Amino acid sequence: MADVLTIVERHIDEAVGHHHTVIGAIDQLAGGRPKRIITMRSDNPALVENPNVHCVLSTGRDYRKHPSQAFENDLAALETVIGVPSVPVSILFPTVQHNDIGLCVRFLDRHPGTARFALRILIFQTIDALTDAERADLDRHVQSGAITIVTETGSLAKLLNARFGLKALNTLLLPCSINPESPPQEAAVPRKTNHFRIGYLGGYRLEKGAEKIPAILQDLKVLLRDCDPAVTVEFVAQHRGGRSGRKRLRYEWEMRKSGWSLSRANRRINIILLDKTLPPEQFIAALHAVDLLLVPYDLNAYAARGSGIIIDGVLAGKPIVHTQGIRMSSFLGFGNAAAAVTTSDFAPKIMEVLHNFQDYQAQTPKARDAAHKQIWNAADFLRNF
Questions:
Q1: Which residue has the higher pLDDT, 249 or 165?
Q2: Which of 119, 180, 238, 263 shows the greatest Cβ crowding within 10 Å of its Cβ?
Q3: What is 5-174's CATH number?
């Protein structure tokens, strides 16, 4: 079993987010390397009946109600699946959570020399939330070579080293919804002259700038009213999720209201709201159908963090308007993107891209090539780890 890659991914059964895309991405990049998957308990027959999937880990609810018991269950589950191999096994955590780090440290302390862990850290807070003692334990195993910390952005790898002295490799950028080997696709419905589709795709979250959208649309409506030649816009977003129907309806009403222009109906922004949870093929179709992606993410949350929609957008060949300073800047500096500092900057930046759309579109292959290089680096890591 030495050549088998063991993947510990808790949330592969969730449709929201990019967890469900991780296994397919690793499959594609690892060159057919055999794998086994360890995930949370599930009643999904596709997982339960798969002999290479072990649905044995505690759920988030377990950790909230009985954290110590949940941790011990996961440690025992890992020991049962891994056993005591004569040759160290390779274990990858593609989406590390706080408890996963302690799990790896405890396993190695109990069974030294039996495993090599690769921990993909996606957000700074995962390490920042550790105690000094927990970080020291982690660093001890990093120094020994038993744990390798990997990231998907160079900025996060540098930050972990600068703040905590932890060695991290910027070597595991995984594609999300868009196949990196497929060329960018044309929209199913061709774009009309001076009519553009702007996409704000993905789940509703404050850190993704969702609350900025009504103001951005209001500003954009004003600019569209006065521009010449006339430009019209479709704004494509997903319904807001959450438990409060009243909040969701108010948010969607604010979005639609922002797009109306009763005095000049031909300049209105047409709002298209898709389901809050889209099957993968529908999400990909929606992404291909837009001309421009809007990424008004919160800088504090994304200063050193990657973004699945940026990866998807770059691979799909889409110009992007984004918050200045968010990471993945290595894919946004080819003339394929425009950066906004404040909420009021977004509408002018959108108009800048729309008025010079062909110029921005022409630079997207350079960004795509840069993403390809990072993804093939990830393939090398997965095949050699």
A1: 165
A2: 119
A3: 3.40.50.11930
Q: At residue 1, does pLDDT exceed 50?
A: no
Q: How confident is the model at residue 157 (pLDDT cuts 50, 70, 90)?
A: very high
Query: Are domains 5-174 and 195-371 of this chain identical in fold?
Result: yes
- Name the maximum alpha-carbon separation found in the chain: 76
The DSSP annotation for 30-41 comes to TTT--EEEEEE-
Spell out the residues 6+ positions from residue 152 whose beta carbon is closer than 8 angstroms to its own. Answer: 120, 122, 170, 172, 173, 174, 306
Map tokens 């969702």 to a residue: 210
Token code pair at residue 60: 């988030």
pLDDT band at residue 377 under the 50/70/90 scheme: very high
Q: Tell which residue, 122, 11, 29, has the closest CA to residue 383.
A: 29
Tokens of 143: 């120094």
Provide the token pair at 229: 């030649």
More confident residue, 223 or 254: 223
| Chosen CATH of 195-371 out of 3.40.50.720, 3.40.250.10, 3.40.50.300, 3.40.50.2000 | 3.40.50.2000
Q: How many Å separate Cα 272 from the centre of its chain?
A: 23
pLDDT, one tens digit per residue, over 175-229 is 999 999 888 776 655 677 789 999 999 877 888 898 899 899 999 988 988 776 7
Domain ranges of the chain: 5-174, 195-371
What's phi and psi for 197, nearest 5 deg?
Answer: -110, 120
Sheet holding 147-151, edge to edge: 53-57, 35-40, 5-8, 89-93, 115-120, 147-151, 168-170
Dist. CA 1–CA 158, nearest whole Å: 34
The answer for residues whose C-beta is within 8 angstroms of residue 190's C-beta and 6 or more apart is: none
Q: How far apart are CA 237 and CA 202, in angstroms?
A: 8
pLDDT in tens, 27-76: 999 988 889 999 999 988 989 899 999 999 999 999 999 999 999 999 99
* Share of residues in the chain with pLDDT > 70 (%): 89
Which two structure tokens, joined as six digits, stand for 306?
């990657």
Report the residue count for the chain. 385
**Strands 195-200, 115-120: parallel, antiparallel or unpaired by DSSP?**
unpaired
Gyration radius of the chain over CA positions: 22
